Amino acid sequence: MRRKSKVEGSKAPTPTVQTEPAPAEDSAPSDSSAKHNNGDGDVSMEDQDHHQIDGHLPSDAAAAETDASSDTVDKDSDAGLELLGQGIKAFVTLIQNLRDLGVEELVLPLPRICVLGDQSTGKSSLIEGISGIKVPRSSGTCTRCPLEINLSASEVGSPWQAKMYLQKRYIYEGIQTLPPFGRSAAQGATKNRPLGPWIAQALPESTLFFKTFKKTDIPGALRLAQLATLNPGTDPARFKPTSPTNQDDRIQVKFSPNIVKLEISGPEVPNLSFFDLPGVINQAEVPAEEDLVKLVANLCKTYAKTDTCINLLALPMTDDAANSTASKLVHELGAEDRTLGVLTKPDRVQSEEGMNQWIDILCGRKFRLGHGYYVVKNNPDPKVSNTTARQEEEDFFKEEPWIRTLGSYYDRFGTLKLSAKLSKLLNSQIRKSLPKITEQVRLKTAEVIARLEKLPEPPKGNLCLKIFEKISTFEHDLARHFDGGSEAYPFPKDFHAAALRFRNTIAFSYPRLSLTDSSVAFKSSAQLPYRQSATPTPSGSRPSDIIPIDSDEECEVTPKLTHTPSPSKRKLLSNGVHQTSSTKRSRLERIPQFVPGQDNGLNSLDSSSTGPSGVDRKAPFAKRYALAEIRTILLDAQTSLPNQIDPKATKRMIRDSLSCWDGPLNEFLEYTGQACLAMILERASCVFALWQGTRCYDLLLEISQSFFQEKFRIQTLAAKRTLDMEQQTALTLHEGAMRNASEGALMALENACRTERVKAFLAKQDPEWDNNLGDRAKSDKVSKVTDIQLGPNPFVQELRALADVRGYYECAFSRFVDVIYQGIQTELFTACRNELRQALKQGIGLEERDAEEKCAILLAVDPENERIRGELLKQKSNLEKACKWFESE
Predict the structure, then answer these.
(1) pLDDT at residue 790 above 90?
(2) DSSP letters spanning 529-563
């Protein structure tokens, strides 16, 4: 049984002022079950069981059912909302489903209610009153994009719940050029582009954003959902209530035509659906945003201009109605006849004179609208419950002038009465529009089917499976080429040869002793930067003259310093370099060449300029030290103890010596990157050759290249870090290896230095001593010069310092080369073998819901045809589903 309100059954007092009759509205439906007229031209119907199957069109009998009039609503609790709109649940649900299917974009606009109003007109409170939920107000984001609210009554005893969706109906043009997150882009509207940079999609994309069973969750979730909408260049997941990054209020666009959709169901919820549009702007906050005024107005016009739209115009009673921009917009559209006015903030009217204009409006003497005006009073305090707000509203309208002066309009006072009116208006509009919608859907379905039949035949078979099998084949093929093992897979052999060249280049770039300044070094100690040697000559043993050396050759030793034998036991070339056997040289020459770059204007390598392992004997990357330079370094870090070398000097020389590694490393990495990428692309082009000429072929190669380039970038950074560690600090635990290497280097340096001193000694006795002698005679003459004749070496400390640097160099270069080589093999090559397959699957979209459609587009000779086919198939499916709903009854 219906529960009567406090007002029901009592006759409204006779008004004390003469008023005009209410404006005529839509005629009430004729029905034998009509009970009484509710005073505003509509006929209320007795409550009846209604026929409703979710997603199906109700029968004519069920369509005629409506709820009891609004004056029968129980206002003591939110349960009063349950009685509103029960008879039109099937209609509202059907329109919602059709809208979700994209019928509105494909066929014609569907019936809807749109809430219009200027900013600060009380729209937020009005929405809260109708829907029973709270909306965010402090940030202002709730008014910057359309909010679709779908209210649906559920069975008694079922829980209240809400689902929030992000509905993408428009794409932001040039989304890649949007400013960084937190900066607003310009959104100018033009005559040809009423919504500025926003381009409509053929079918909307809807994504579930949030689901809750608590009303208190709605304000915060709405704020985040609309922030996600106002940041089209940012992943919406960033703004979900469960995301830790959702506290940022920065936006990329000030307004968006994309929709936040809120679906609410519960036993105490009315059956109603409406759109809350952004408040119309009268003036921009700053001149640079003047175009936003036009954009927001155009957005509101897009919704309000259709004949099937019922406009709910909010006007605050605190302002002059003539100043309403939203009211002017309705007038420009010629939409007055299908507009219902809502007068808000009645408790804030300041004077009797101010009240008179609203009485004139309510009576229809001014600003006449087709559906007249309703008056609502809402509590703006978000802490006040909807139940309390409705009770306060009922009490307010029991006072003057509402209860007596305007008593004949009492059925138009209150939010619940407004909701009931809106339900009936929407019901009437849906019933009137359904025949046309049904016919247009059928015509559109036939049109789509005809267009599909004209398109060329698509690729056949399970396309996702075909692409997946090819990707698997490519993965196995790559594994074989990385593993090698035969002449058919040369990459590992070529890479290993290149790595050896890299190692040999680094190895042969050890620091050198340059004797080109021999005439300075041995002619007179007075010509050195400092007068005394770092190693004092024993008293009485110093020769009267320093012997000059004429040779310009560099002192060079084999990179394998640890095993350097005495010169007397190994055959040396005339230039001091150990001879390489013809067998070894022949074996090395068969290694595929990775030729390091040449600096200082050196020509390419040839047999006359190569030393061990075919590496350039001139060692373009090596650091060269003159004796005078070493002495300066030692003196710069001189200790207070005699005959001691300060570790600072050694570390400085080590750092300088290792600075040459940048060049060989860059060239080795460049070779590796080019060779590996060339191999991957060559194998991809072979495996996927069947699809050459399609977008799929190009995309597979693009993904492969991008994947490798990213992995190679990471590997390059790792190699650079390793190099930086080596060059920054000299560290090793291989004490024995370094000591052996240093001793071998010192022996080689001393021997080479003595040889040059002997030549200088002999040249001083006879400048032409070597011109008339054969090799054997020269060797005999050199061997007869004794250490007593030469005198003590004044550069022992300099040679010791350089020997220590060479000893560390040998330990460090081997470690460095191994780390680089191992990193490339175990990280870069392994990633290419094991991870490229997944990257290709994701890049093609094989794991996505519409993978088969995407594959059809990718494998088509004409991708545009397949793109169109995919869109038409979606349209056909949605339209056929709509047709089934129409035919179900």
Answers:
(1) no
(2) SSSS-SSPPPTT---SSPPP-----EE---S-GGG
Report how far residue 132's alpha carbon sits from residue 832's, in angstroms, rounded to the nearest whole number: 57
Residue 186 pLDDT grade (very low, low, confident, very high; cuts 50, 70, 90)? low
3-state secondary structure 853-865: HHHHHHHCCCHHH
pLDDT in tens, 258-292: 999 999 988 878 788 889 988 888 777 677 667 77
How far is residue 412's CA from residue 342's CA, in Å, rounded to a whole number?
10
User: Phi and psi at residue 206, in whole multiples of 5°?
Assistant: -115, 130
Comparing C-alpha atoms, which of 783, 789, 787, 792 is closest to residue 765? 789
- Encoding tokens for residue 365? 């003497």
- Hey, what's the torsion of the CAs at 460, 461, 464, 467, to 10 degrees? -80
What is the rounded distance in angstroms from the CA atom of residue 89 to the CA atom of residue 425?
A: 13
Q: Give 801-857 pLDDT, tens digit per residue.
A: 898 999 898 999 999 999 999 999 999 999 999 999 999 999 999 988 889 888 988
**What is the arithmetic mean of pLDDT over 213-220?**
90
Architecture of domain 34-440: 3-Layer(aba) Sandwich (3.40)
pLDDT of residue 626: 84
Q: How far is CA 113 from CA 144, 311, 448, in A?
A: 18, 6, 29
Sorted by where each begins, the domain ranges of the chain are: 34-440, 476-592+623-842
The DSSP bridge pattern shows strands 147-153 and 112-117 to be unpaired
The per-residue DSSP string of 840-856 comes to HHHHHTTTSTTHHHHHH
How much of the chain, in percent, has pLDDT values that exceed 90?
A: 25
- Could you identify the residue written with the tokens 């404006």? 23
Q: How far apart are CA 143 and CA 442, in angstroms?
A: 37
Supply the DSSP string of 555-583, one letter for each residue: E---S-GGGPPPGGGS-B-TTSPBPPPHH
Strand 34-37 to 43-45 pairing: antiparallel
Give residue 638's pLDDT band: very low, low, confident or very high (50, 70, 90): confident
Q: What value does the mean pLDDT of the chain take?
A: 75
Burial of residue 850 (CB within 10 Å: 0-12, 13-18, 19+) is exposed
The encoded tokens of residue 257 equal 């035509």
Residue 5 clears pLDDT 50, i.e. is over it: no
